[in-house]
């Protein structure tokens, strides 16, 4: 008979790590799985996490993992979870990993995060080094620089441009073929923000540092960094396969304390938000979901 866990946490980003810490401290038997695909792995520094401003993402995770080692009921494995199956009769979950191992658990926390898709493949080379998607995370480092805003619809263009204008007044908007309304163009021009609606042909730079953006016409516009608006998506469908209800936008429905519509399944972090957030928010979500998990186990067993 396999060991039964109180909770299996899938994903050791800030959401999963923080949940595991809370559960370990609550004396729960927890297994945490991670496969190293955290969204911020491409960046050198993380900003805005209280007391850890400027920390490297790897160092952030290493400290969290080290601190979890103090809790004997917690185990951490570098494994990809490939399937979660509900055992309805026993009210348990079976978790399968890519190493052909299986685990059983009473509760599941999905903290697997999201990923981004870019309008242009070349953006990947610069993402996390000189092109970013979150001004709160990286706006300070790019302040007053000649920046590009790369976005492809009115709503995203307006939102990102107005926001980034706070950090740098030297902005050029690239819509990659999207035609912007005259009203918006006039608003931007009144602030001396140029707009290029031509399709982008290429990005140029060195070692992730953007130097210029080349348009289809061959015109090359100098920029030393900027912000892009990617599309975000949830790469795995564990929640759907386990029959958790989702809303019309594909977001998993929760009670705002991390409980999904299926008893025993919880979510935290960007998986829950169905969009980008921050290390601090994800960690807080993990803490909140862990309290729900612990309370539910407590009430079941008391
Ligand atoms: C370039 C960049 C820079 C950023 N800079 C900042 C910053 O300065 N400050 C800030 O606050 N935020 C920053 N962020 C945002 C921050 O990284 C996210 O908000 C945060 O990581 C979300 O936490 P999470 O725990 O929800 O997801 P993640 O951190 O993405 O963690 C999810 C984890 O799940 C694991 N996983 C996924 N699927 C599986 C599976 N099937 N099996 C096992 N494990 C799995 C992954 O390996 C990953 O570690 C940045 C993001 C990017 C992309």
TrEMBL record:
Its cofactor is FAD. One of its GO terms (molecular function) is oxidoreductase activity. Gene3D superfamilies: FAD/NAD(P)-binding domain. Keywords: Flavoprotein, Oxidoreductase. SUPFAM superfamilies: FAD/NAD(P)-binding domain (SSF51905). Residues 5-150, 177-286 form the FAD/NAD(P)-binding domain. It comes from the Bacteria. Homodimer. This is Thioredoxin reductase. The lineage of its organism: Bacteria, Bacillati, Bacillota, Bacilli, Bacillales.
């Amino acid at each position: 008979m396999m060991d039964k866990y109180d909770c299996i946490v899938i994903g050791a980003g800030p959401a999963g790590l923080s949940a595991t810490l809370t559960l370990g401290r609550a004396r729960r038997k927890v297994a945490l799985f991670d496969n190293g695909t955290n969204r911020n792995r491409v960046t050198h520094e993380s900003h805005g996490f209280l007391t850890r401003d400027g920390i490297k993402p790897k160092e952030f995770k290493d400290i969290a993992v080290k601190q979890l080692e103090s809790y004997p009921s917690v185990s951490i494995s570098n494994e990809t979870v490939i399937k979660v199956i509900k055992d309805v009769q026993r009210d348990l979950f079976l978790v399968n990993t890519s190493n052909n191992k299986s685990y059983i658990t009473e509760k599941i926390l999905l903290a697997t995060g999201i990923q981004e898709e870019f309008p242009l493949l070349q953006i990947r080379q610069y993402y996390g080094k000189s092109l970013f998607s979150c001004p709160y995370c990286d706006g300070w480092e790019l302040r007053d620089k000649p920046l590009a805003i790369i976005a492809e619809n009115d709503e995203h263009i307006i939102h990102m441009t107005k926001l980034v204008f706070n950090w740098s007044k030297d902005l050029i908007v690239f819509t990659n073929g999207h035609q912007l309304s005259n009203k918006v163009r006039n608003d931007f021009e009144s602030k001396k923000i140029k707009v290029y609606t031509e399709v982008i042909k290429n990005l140029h730079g060195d070692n992730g540092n953007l130097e210029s953006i080349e348009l289809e016409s061959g015109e090359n516009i100098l920029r030393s960094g900027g912000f892009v608006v990617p599309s975000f998506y949830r790469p795995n469908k564990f929640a759907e396969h386990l029959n958790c209800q989702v809303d019309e936008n594909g977001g998993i429905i929760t009670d705002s304390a991390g409980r999904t519509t299926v008893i025993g399944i919880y979510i935290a972090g960007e998986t829950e938000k169905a969009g980008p957030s921050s290390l601090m928010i994800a960690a807080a979500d993990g803490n909140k979901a862990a309290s729900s998990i612990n309370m539910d186990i407590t009430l079941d067993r008391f």
